[in-house]
Amino acid sequence: MLGFVDRTQWKTFLGEFSKRNQLRPAHLEVVGDIGAQIAEEHLPFVGVGFETKGHNAGSVEIALGGETAADERHLSHLVSNVERIAPLIGTNGMEDGLGIEDQNGVKTILRFETLPEIENRELRERRQLVH
Fold it and tell me: What's residue 33's pLDDT?
């Protein structure tokens, strides 16, 4: 992970990141001593926040879930003892996700997914512009 966010900016950065990327389909995995473990795929990104008080101080919580209150699909993932946070930037210069590393070197990686139907529509639109 390159381009780490300064610790003093974590709360602000994560709030802005959440607003910019809300409801994008997401893939969440944790990479540690036992390899990569997929926690979730295809759930919409709800938000991410930095906890500054209480017993979870120094933790980052990632929330994924359904698009409406009636949708019961949801996941909350807590990363304790956060050491570093970095936005993941794609080749197109856009945010592709977020990387979070804890004090033990375990990395939590949130990547935004491109759904095939959206990708195909974008390709068709690009081809029409070229012709």
Answer: 78
Residues of the chain by 3-state class (helix, strand, coil), percent to 5: 25, 45, 30
Per the DSSP assignment, residues forming a β-bridge with 102 are: 82
- d(CA 107, CA 119) in angstroms, rounded, equals 28
Q: What does the block give as tokens for 67?
A: 């698009």
Q: State yes or no: pLDDT of 91 exceeds 70.
A: yes
The topology (CATH level 3) of 7-130 is: PH-domain like (2.30.29)
pLDDT at 59 over 70: yes
The domain segmentation of the chain, as residue ranges, is 7-130
Report phi then psi at 123, rounded to 5.
-65, -45
